[in-house]
Design a protein that fits this description.
Elements: H1 8-23, H2 30-46, H3 57-77, E1 80-82, H4 83-86, H5 88-92, E2 116-128, E3 131-140, E4 145-152, H6 157-179, H7 181-185, E5 195-199, E6 202-206, H8 214-224, H9 233-248
Antiparallel strand pairs: 1-2, 2-3, 3-4, 4-6, 5-6
Length: 249
């Protein structure tokens, strides 16, 4: 079943990744620049479509699995950074520097709006919403800590803008739910995070560290299972059985 050529869409997508890697400017630090160059060269070598064998679906899927494992391991090793390393201005920012309201604070009208007191020094690299994002923490003027995700949307700008408009629609639904007796009594509301576009290719998303998705629970189960199980093991098993049935006629 998997011994077929990849579709033109997959071919264009992987080719676009290679082109994107070639456009990334080299890091100023020599160690990171050398590592970045090695990743580019290895990715181009693993996805060499010059011969027909390299375009086989089973080979591409196997290579992609190896890359996902490697990148997950790299992310876990460098999951924590510090604000001072990324942006010294934000690390020194405080309420006495300027009065800035919390990001997305005016999306939900209320009596009192929270201002930014300071940015906490820790930055985490996490995977959430099927994306890799950086989580930063902001302490508000009320003493509470508000986590936000910095997400890069350069590859799907149109989809990001559509999501933002859909979230606005859910906020309108929440106003209607508050005005209705039965939904107000049960406190029924859509959970709508604040999303603010900081640039055409990036946006800040309000995060809730207490929330966890079913996919994250499943990943945790696969990792802590004895023996450890691949996340896509059920899908691989399905295609193996399907191929066996087709071969048997």
């Amino acid at each position: 079943v998997l011994n077929v050529k990849i579709s033109q869409q997959i071919y264009k997508y992987i080719t676009s990744i290679i082109q994107y890697l070639n456009t990334i400017p080299a890091n100023s630090r020599s160690r990171d620049a050398s590592k970045q160059t090695t990743i580019k060269q290895r990715f181009e070598a693993d996805f060499d479509f010059s011969n027909n064998q390299g375009k086989r679906l089973h080979k591409v899927l196997k290579t992609l699995k190896c890359w996902v494992k490697m990148l997950d391991k790299t992310q876990s090793n460098s999951s924590k950074n510090y604000m001072e390393e990324r942006c010294s201005y934000l690390s020194k920012f405080c309420s006495s520097s300027a009065e800035v309201y919390l990001i997305g604070e005016f999306l939900n009208p209320k009596a009192h709006y929270v201002k930014i007191a300071r940015f906490l020094p820790k930055i985490e690299t996490i995977r959430k919403h099927s994306l890799t994002a950086r989580r930063l923490f902001i302490r508000g003027s009320n003493g509470k800590v508000y986590p936000y995700l910095m997400v890069n949307t350069s590859s799907h700008i149109k989809q990001a803008r559509s999501e933002e408009r859909f979230l606005q629609l859910l906020r309108m639904f929440n106003k209607s739910l508050v005005q209705r007796k039965e939904s107000c009594r049960r406190n029924l509301q859509w959970s709508v995070p604040k999303v603010v576009a900081t640039a055409p290719s990036s946006r800040l998303i309000e995060d809730n560290t207490s929330n966890i998705s079913v996919l994250e629970i499943y990943r945790w189960y696969c990792k802590n299972r004895t023996p450890e199980m691949e996340v896509d093991a059920p899908i691989a098993y399905y295609y193996e059985q399907l191929g066996r049935m087709q071969n048997e006629g």
